[in-house]
């Protein structure tokens, strides 16, 4: 007779995590709202102080709970910091093992941005891209003196897709950017000149402004060629 293994019961700390999340949902709490105290959570969830503290620490690590010492506990604001740290760590490990998971991340980001520029062109009425034009001017100024700063490059992509009204877009692209930037020492110097960097961003902006979907997707592909080349060098 085959013995069916019993399902493993989650630990009390894991149950406490789910209890806190369920409490947030049931009470309709949103980011920034105060949470009950440790003692109140212990009473409501019927778990020990150690389990509550372990649960809160785990929820804080993923941004669900914000613990402000001296002020209390609050519902956290969504953050992808944990994802960034994990992706950066594993990308660094795979680079040491002769693999290149960073290239996979870049591919995902390129696919995402190719779809986003098409979605941006579909907006009706057309999006106001004046802030993006201002960033390109800033890029041109920086390129005259040296390389375009990472902050300006990141700002371009953030502002370009902001009219879509989807806050997750900025957070996801920001997470990919953070991983890429944290591995900059392994990547080495970029292949493109500052002027090339400006041109590739300007081409994306111009195509979107003109409503030319094919040109916009092609411009995104051209922009990522430099990134792919830079990442490809470290995979040998």
From TrEMBL:
Keywords: DNA-binding, Transcription, Transcription regulation. SMART domains: FCD, HTH_GNTR. Residues 10-78 form the HTH gntR-type domain. CDD domains: WHTH_GntR. Pfam families: FCD, GntR. The keyword Transcription regulation applies. InterPro entries: GntR_C, TF_FadR/GntR_C, Tscrpt_reg_HTH_GntR, WH-like_DNA-bd_sf, WH_DNA-bd_sf. The keyword Transit peptide does not apply. GO terms for molecular function: DNA binding; DNA-binding transcription factor activity. This is FadR family transcriptional regulator. It comes from Nonomuraea diastatica. The lineage of its organism: Bacteria, Bacillati, Actinomycetota, Actinomycetes, Streptosporangiales.
């Amino acid at each position: 007779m085959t013995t069916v293994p019993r399902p493993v019961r989650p630990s009390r700390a894991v149950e406490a995590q789910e209890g806190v999340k369920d409490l947030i949902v049931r009470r309709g709490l949103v980011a920034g709202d105060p949470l009950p105290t440790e003692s109140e959570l212990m009473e409501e969830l019927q778990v020990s102080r150690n389990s509550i503290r372990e649960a809160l620490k785990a929820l804080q690590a993923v941004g669900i709970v914000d613990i402000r010492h001296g002020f209390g506990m609050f519902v956290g604001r969504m953050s992808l910091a944990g994802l960034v740290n994990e992706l950066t760590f594993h990308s660094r490990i795979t680079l040491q093992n002769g693999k290149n998971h960073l290239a996979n991340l870049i591919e995902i980001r390129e696919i995402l941005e190719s779809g986003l520029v098409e979605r941006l062109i579909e907006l009706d009425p057309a999006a106001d891209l004046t802030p993006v034009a201002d960033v390109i001017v800033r890029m041109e100024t920086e390129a005259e003196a040296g390389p375009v700063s990472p902050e300006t490059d990141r700002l371009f992509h953030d502002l370009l897709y902001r009219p879509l009204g989807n806050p997750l877009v900025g957070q996801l692209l920001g997470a990919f950017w953070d991983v890429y930037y944290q591995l900059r020492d392994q990547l080495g110097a970029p292949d493109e000149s500052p002027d090339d960097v400006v041109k590739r961003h300007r081409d994306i902006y111009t195509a979107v402004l003109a409503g030319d979907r094919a040109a916009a997707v092609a411009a995104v592909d051209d922009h990522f060629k430099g990134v792919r080349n830079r990442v490809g060098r470290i995979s040998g």
